[in-house]
Amino acid sequence: MSLPQPRAILEVTHPVTWFPPMWAYACGVVSAGVALGERWVLIIVGVMLAGPLICGTSQVVNDWFDRHVDAINEPHRPIPSGRIPGQWGLWLAIIWTLASLALATVLGVWGFLAAVFGLILAWAYSAPPTRLKRNGWWGNSAVAICYEGVPWFTGVVVMAGVFPDWRIIAVALLYSIGAHGIMTLNDFKSVEGDRQMGLGSLPVKLGVDRAAKLACWVMAIPQLFVVALLLLWGAPIYAAAVAALLVVQIGLMVRLLKRPKELAPWYNATGITLYVSGMMVTAFALGSMDLMAS
User: Residue 141 contacts by C-beta under 8 Å, 6 or more apart in sequence?
Assistant: First the structure.
């Protein structure tokens, strides 16, 4: 059996998708509010684990079990195009999973357990019998928590060495909920294939227009709660910064809703940048509160 092309192996891990969990891990590191000291190794390992390994694993698993859908939507992808031949897509998913678990041991017990949880959801999202992506509500929730909540939690626990303060967990969960809307927008590119293959993404279930409106609400409301919580916790400057970023997002959402399927990629490049900027602002706010000492 022929071997997969090296460039195709990189492509099937979808490097562009690595950024959200890597960024969320960095938010966790910042929100821990502890001195970095000699923890740089843990930061680098955590970023590599969140992005190229665990997120990369999820992408390979998804491409393998979606190869028939991709043959309709995106036949140029490495697996349906044959650049990753035979069963190599499955073997790469297994190899990436084992490599992720091996590296996760460096992050201690909590870091390893978080990696296990993320990998379980990565497989459950795409692989039968669970195949959570068949239902847009469950599938998007699994991806959102893995992209935002789990790496944020891991960054905190690895840096601080203790279970995170409830305020950090609350904020990480809120941004995970908001990421559900981001995942909905991401599904717009594959509506036709999803419909043909019986995948119940929210654009298929609700229609593109209704799904876009829902995504905007789901992205905006958690950020409003974050603003309110920051004000409650005595961080008005940070709250104002997050609110300002949200106002600009809402302006972009107004344009998005006019032609959601066409403009979803544009919003992913603009509105989502503002969304994750608000995440880091919030992380600095939490880090300044010295929560680990409370």
Answer: 132, 180
Instruction: Domain of residue 135: give its range.
Output: 6-293
Residues constituting the chain? 294
CA neighbor of 171 nearest in space, from 201, 149, 155, 197:
149
Q: Is the dihedral of CA 41, 47, 50, 52 positive or negative?
A: negative
CATH number at residue 249: 1.10.600
Task: Sort residue 37 into left (φ over 0), alpha (ψ -120 to 50) or beta.
Answer: left
Place of tokens 């840096």: 159
Q: Strand pairing partners for 200? A: 135
In sequence order, what DSSP letters do the residues of 25-50 get, joined into one string? HHHHHHHH----TTTHHHHHHHHHII
Q: Which spans in the chain are helix H? A: 6-12, 19-32, 40-48, 56-65, 67-73, 78-81, 88-104, 108-126, 136-144, 150-160, 166-186, 191-196, 202-206, 208-232, 236-256, 260-287
pLDDT in tens, the chain (294 residues): 588 888 999 999 999 999 999 999 999 999 999 887 778 999 999 999 999 999 999 999 999 998 987 888 788 999 999 999 999 999 999 999 999 999 999 999 999 999 999 999 999 999 999 999 889 899 999 999 999 999 999 999 999 888 889 999 999 999 999 999 999 998 887 777 778 777 788 888 899 999 999 999 999 999 999 999 999 999 999 999 999 999 999 999 999 999 998 999 999 999 999 999 999 999 999 999 867 544
Residue 1 lies in a domain: no
Look at the chain and report how many structural domains it folds into.
Answer: 1
